[in-house]
Structure formats: structure tokens, C-alpha cells
Amino acid sequence: MTDEAAPAAGFLAKAFANRSFVVGFVITALVAAMALLSFFWTPYDVTKLIVADRMQPPSAAHWFGTDQFGRDVLSMIMVGARNSIAVALVAVGIGMGIGVPLGCWAAARGGYIDDALMRFNDIVFAFPALLSAIMITAIFGPGAVNAIIAIGIFNIPVFARVARAGSLAIWPREFILAARAAGKGKALISVEHILPNIANLLLVQGTIQFALGILAEAGLSYVGLGAQPPMPSWGRMLFDAQTRMIVAPYLAIIPGMAIVITVLGLNLIGDGLADTLDPKLRHRR
Amino acid sequence: MSLLEIENLSLDIGGVPILKDIDLAISSGEVVGLVGESGSGKSMTALSIMRLLPEAARASGRIAFNGFDLLTATEDRMCALRGDDIGMIFQEPMTALNPLKTIGEQVAEGIRWHTGANRPDAEALARKMLDRVGLPQGKFPLSRYPHELSGGQRQRVVIAIACALKPKLLIADEPTTALDVLLQAQILDLLRDLVDEHRMGLLLISHDLAVVAEMADRITILRGGEVMEAGETARTLSVQAHPYTRQLAAASMHVPARRVALPLAGRVSAEPTGGGRRDVLDSPDKAPLLSVRNISKDYPGRRTSLFRKPTPTRAVDDVSFTLHAGQSVALVGSSGCGKSTLARMILALDEPTSGTISIRGETISGRNEASLRHIRRDMQVVFQDPYGSFNPRRTVEWLVAEPLHLLDSRPGKAERRELVAQALHEVGLTPSDISKYPHEFSGGQRQRISIARALITRPKLIVADEPVSALDVSIRARILDLFADLNQRLGVGYLFITHDLTVARAITDAVMVMHDGRIVETGRSSEVLSHPQSEAARALVEAAPDLHRAIARKMQEQG
Q1: Which of B2, B67, B391, B526 could form a disulfide with B25 if both were Cys (CB 3.0 to 4.6 A apart)?
Q2: Nearest residue, CB atoms, A4 vs list B369, B379, B392
Q3: pLDDT of amino acid B464
Q4: CA torsion A246→A252→A253→A255, rounded to 10°?
């Protein structure tokens, strides 16, 4: 008996029985909750500069201290989480929304369309993603929206590849033949039969790309091509901190830890989901 | 003393009892058959002997191999025994070999591990063994990879691995179930010869009573983890003292009750390819349900050089036949003869390279999906694998209703439910099954769902590709009954694709024998099967295991 026999609801139930999924889920949920909270309340206003309070180490009033303009670091981390998550989420959405249909189309059509799409994929893959994102934002100007587009474009081939590989494994199955004997066209079969069967794969890839998206956003902000001031972002907090590493190491450590913990949480989710997908791996644990 | 003695073997896995008080003994040079249906504990018995049970399993009782208790043996001791004194052959030759290693490496691996022989010596021995199992040096060098071999050849490699060190005991778990009858006969012959040569004990596990009857000196019949009956093959199967033995034997010889002289709407007329004789229809006024004219199908060959054009492989070669409404015809042939390719072309899932196929006078080749719809309504399909033929993420209602897509006016929700319930009723399932998922059903039930899906558009023709070969004998008998019943009640015609002649004889009016892409013989089922004319048909008939014949022969041998 394979686990694929279970419908999707059972799959998530099983995922919650996986330790790394649960840990990852809790971490990610905390980060997301923090980001949501920042819409309504932050300990201090991140746009208000209070020079008198500048460069304070962590204390009861400022848990994570303050930066060179006297802004509260905890508040900046909270608002920055909002930014990171939004950029990564939309970028994954762009990648999935365009990449998955492309991959399914390539698998369904085969022949020269498949070849052309996949070779184009290879070309996009050949550029280091972050470098190309820098190139795009350099051309169209820095900003959160352009960062989203840049990261999103480089998610497209990833999802196209996963969707195509998954679809190719499903196409020769007998239930696809039965659907064709029922007169269904390739597009309909892709939607009704292929997609539900590769959804798990896409979910795993989605969490991984989400984590990479957060890293990429931090990277872009670090070089000044992401969200622009006064909008706080984790990457630029790191950049601002690096000249003050000796006097105020917490300024670098705290946003760094925020990035590490968020990416770790998402990777744990991806890991847990992948284990749940592959029953052979799971039994060994 | 026997080579292997199993006494009171009981086994439970995670608290669920699997085996209860199994007794079994095998002497050197003896073939013991272990027969039972899926879930009867056959494989678990074999795995208990090998001590390859799942982790949660607890076994009690005694398994003595040459007087040495295997159940209490250390893992190191078992490792030394496995593959040396006890060899095992698995069912699925496609997955029993490591695809990344050459066949030479895989045969030599066990030899080197157990005897400490160096590589050249082990390979020399491996070479000898491969020659012995019928894979000679010239065509099958040690450097071949499993994917370059056919199913039967791979099974020979598996046998070579198991027999390389001349084990005292060989365990064969359904060694021929995945093969067609011709290959099955060859593999069984090989096993018999190897057992005689080395005076091995052979534990032959099978669900097929006929296979076991032909091979085994003694048989043990299992059901639900318990021994139902055990004894000499001839006596056990001729007396059939236990009701379950009787039931199993009846199921494997089962012929559905049908009107014997089914009035043929027309003679099946497929002439041997190339013959000048054109068919003469008994009812020429009506267009035949299915007419196949000079169909050929080429697959592009492997490109051997950048500049040379690859030579195409011809899978189906100039096939012609007609089939009339209500008729059921078997298409019989060994694996790879082109049966399934032909079926896919008839179902308009594949385009023929040349020739025409018409359903009720309408040509199906070269049409687009939209103009095929009303033709597709008249023909549906049932596949072999009851596990692979459903999308696991859909409910039975959705799956069975899928062909309704072909209707011009889509039925509404309530009507659709009604139609599905009716189709399920037709195949003997209850309407409450409608919202379940495929994994909640057994293999036999899934095959019923598959038939329900094929029936829902009320087709005139159902193409069934090996519809019962993955099923246990008793379930197979019931599914065959269902096919026969539907043929009579609803007048559905069948094109039955099979390598199993007993299936062909049971429910079809006519048989076409296919060989190397051509139809080599055609005729009424009973005639072809009792007096085969062509060589291909004769080979198939001779290789088919037959319980009556096997029992008769065993009676002579064992008195």
C-alpha cells in the first residue's frame, strides 16, 4: 500500500505527526504572528527617530536595543518580518502561477514545445538567481515591488521543472488512459488528474522556495535594492549594522538571527512534508 | 530427517495474528507447493524462514534447517545462511535487480561475499551460472544491465543469483506470476532441472493451483494464516477432502455459465495476415461493430548513429479483423506481441502508422477529440492493474462518472448520482460505495469499479486489457462471471486481451492468436484451443497450466 492512496486531508494529518514539520510549523507561525501583530501594534513607532535614545544596548525598555537613529530594534524586526514574508509569498505565488502551468503544458504536449520550454528553463537557471535579481532591480530601480518581481521570475523555472517531472511520472498511468478514453483533453486531464497528484510535490517545493525567497529579499535589501527606507527590512538592518559591529554587535546579531530562524522554520516544514511524502524514508526514523 | 521442518509457526505483526500453527517439511530434492490467495500468509511464511520479517513481527514455534533452529539464530548466522544455503527468488523481476549494477556484478556479489572468492573467480562462476540458466556468453555478457533484458531474462538472472552457490533450499515466491504463459513454462522447467541437478529442496509459493500441481510433490494449502490441507499433490487434489481445496480447484477451472450456442451476429473473420482470403460476413447488411483493416504501427527505433536513420520497430503488422455487436473475442499472445498496442489504437489512444479502424462504419483515425466523442461513447476500456487504473485522489462517484464527459448533454448532479449508483449496482457493488476512495477497496472490487466506469455510457464494445490476470483465482472466477453476465444482459461485446488461455476459453466466442505483431490464427475458442494450427498457438496451448492435466500426470507418477 502506498501513501499516495490517501486523500489530501490525510496527508496533512500525517504531516502533523512529523516532528520536524511541527517544530517548523510553530516557528513559522510565530514569525507570521509577529508580522501580523506589527500591523496593529509595535512597541515603538519605527518611523520616529529619537536621537536621544540612539545605540542603546538591549534593556527592559528596548528588548533588542535601539539603532543609530534611536529606533527600537524589536519593532523594526516585527515590521521587517511583514516585508520579508510579503515579498517571499508573492514571489512564490508568481513562480507557481506561471511555472506550474508551463511545466504541466510541457509534460502534456511533449515534443518540440517541451524541448523549447525546458531549454529556456536551463538558460534562466544558468544565471545565479541573486545576481540576476540584482540586474533586474538595477534596471527597473530598487524597491519592494521590483524585488518581488525579480525573485518571482527566478522561481518560475524551479516550479516548471518540478511540475513537469511530476506530471511525466503520472502521464503513463492507466487512469490517465482511462480519462483519455473518456474523451477528456490534455488540459482537462492536467487540471483534474495531474495537478491533485503533484500538489504534494509542489507544496514541498513551495516551502523551500519561500525560505529561499526570504534569503533573497534579505540579500537584495542588504545591497540596497530591496525595500527602501523608511520601511525597515532585515537585510538593510544587517547592512546598517556592519560598520558598528564592534560597538553594538546586537544590531547585527538580532536581524541575522531573525533570518536564520525564519529560514530554518520553513526548511523544517519542507523537510517534514518531504518525509511525509516518501513513506520509505519515514519508516526509517 | 527433513531439510526444513517448520513446527507450530505462529506470527503476529504489531499484535495482529498473521500465521497460526503452520507445519511444513521439505526434504532434499523435494518440491513442496504452498498455495493460497492474497493475504493467506504464503509470503510471510517464506520471510519467516529467511528471517526477513518486518520489525514489528514476532514469530514463535520452530523452524529447523538441517536441525538448526532459524528463529533463535543470530543475525550474523542468518546472513551466512541467506544466499548461501538458502536461496530466494522473488516475484517481480523488474524490481528484484539493482538497476545500477551489471548482471555479472549482481550474480558475483553473493559468491564473493559468501566464499571470499576474488573477483575473477567469482565472475567465472557467475558466467557458468548464467550459461546454466539460459543466458549464454555470446548474447548476454556479464556487462549487461538489467534494463537491457526482458522480464523473463531478468527472472533468469534472479534465479542465477539464488542458485549460484547451490543452496540446499530454494524458496520461490510467485516466481512466474509476472510472466506470460510461455515464459512461465520455461522458468518452471529451469527450476525443475536445477532442483533435480543439485537435489535442492524447493518451496514453491503460488496462487495458481495448476502451476503448483504440475511442479510439486506435496502441497500445503493456506488460508487466513492457517494450513487447510497438506499432503501428496495427486491425492490432495484428486480427493479434495477439505472444502477449501475443493473451492480453490473449482475456482481455477471456473467457466462462467453462458448460453453455449450464443448466436453469433457474424463470424469473426480475421484471416492470417497476408492471406488472400477476405472475410465473409454472415450478416453483410449491417456494418460491423468494429472493423480493423490492415493496421500497422511502427515505433521509432533507437538511434545508433547521428547520421543513420533509426530503423523503426514494427509493433503491429498488417492486422485485419471484424467484430460484431454482442460478440466477445479474445486476443491472445505472449508479452510483447503487440496486443496492447493494437488495443490502444482501437481505443483511439494511439494513431496507427497505416490502415484504418472503424467503429460501426465510422473511421476513427485522423479525427480530433471533439469528433471522436460519439464514437468513444460506444467503446470503453478496462485495464489490468486494479491499483493503477484510478486516480487515488478522487471518489468512486467522480471516477465512475468520468466517461459521462462524452455525453452531449451532461447529466445534472442528481442524475449523475443515479447513473453511477446504477452502474455500481450492475457490477455488484452497493450505492453506499459511491463516496469512498479507491484505496478503500480490494483488488477484485476495484476491478468491478473499473467495469462500472466502462459501462456507464452503455458502450457496445469494451476493450479489456488483461482484466483478471492480477486477481486471485476465486475473485477472477467472479469477475469472469460478471463479464459473461453483462454480455448476456446488456449485449456488450468484448475484446479480451490476455495471455491466459483459460480466460479466453471461459468467456469468448472466438480467439485470435497474435505473434510478433501479426494475427497468425483465428477461430472459435474451443477449436483453436483444442486443435491449434499455427506454431504460436500450439506453444501457447502447451504452455498453459491446466489443472486437470496436471492432476492426471501426478496421479500416474505418485500412483
Answers
A1: B2
A2: B392
A3: 92
A4: 170
Contacting residues of B for A175, CB less than 8 Å apart: 388-391, 399
Question: Alpha-carbon distance A186 to A191, whole Å?
Answer: 9
Distance CA B178, CA A136 (A): 56
Q: Which three cell numbers mark B499?
A: 495471455
Q: Sort out which chain B residues have CB atoms less than 8 A from A193's CB and list them.
A: 391
Cross-chain CB nearest to A174 (options B383, B392, B439): B383
- Between CA A151 and CA A91 the distance in angstroms is 6
> B301-343: per-residue pLDDT in tens?
766 676 777 778 888 999 999 888 888 899 998 888 888 889 9
Task: Beginning with the edge strand found earlier in the chain, give each strand of the sheet holding B354-359 in spatial order.
Answer: B313-323, B290-299, B354-359, B362-363
pLDDT per position as a tens digit, A273-282: 888 776 544 4
Omega of the bond leading into B411 within 30 degrees of 0 (cis)? no
- Cell numbers given for B396: 468512486
Q: Smallest CA–CA separation between B334 and chain A, in Å?
A: 21
B489 touches chain A (CB under 8 A): no
- Searching chain B, which residue's CA lies closest to the CA of residue A173? B388
Give the span between the Cα atoms of B462 and B451, in whole angstroms. 9
Q: Does A282 touch chain B (CB under 8 A)?
A: no
Binning pLDDT at 50, 70 and 90, where does residue A94 land?
very high
Q: Which domains does chain A have, with CATH numbers?
A: 11-42+53-284 (1.10.3720.10)
- Residue A59's contacts (CB-CB under 8 Å, 6 or more residues apart) are A65
Residue B422: what residue type?
Q
Question: Chain B contacts of A191, Cβ < 8 Å?
Answer: none
CB-based contact B26:B204 (threshold 8 Å)? no
DSSP-derived pairing of the beta strands B354-359 and B362-363: antiparallel
Note the maximum CA span of chain B: 77
Domain ranges of chain B: 97-166, 290-302+309-544
Give the mean model confidence (pLDDT) for residues A203-220: 90
Q: What is the mean pLDDT of residues B377-395?
A: 87
Q: What chain A residue is nearest to B462 in terms of C-alpha separation?
A: A181
Q: What share of chain A is helix, strand, coil (3-state, %, to 5)?
A: 75, 0, 25
Beta strands in B101-200 (DSSP E): 169-173
Taking the Cβ of residue B437 and every Cβ of chain A, the question of whether any pair is shorter than 8 Å is answered with yes
Name residues 308-367 of chain B within 8 A of A (Cβ): 344, 347, 349
CB-nearest partner of B405 from A177, A183, A193 = A183
Contact A232, A241 (CB under 8 A): no
Residue A5 to residue B439, Cβ atoms within 8 A? yes
Residues facing B462 on adjacent strands? B380, B494
CATH of domain B290-302+309-544: 3.40.50.300
Whether this model's ipTM surpasses 0.85 comes out as no
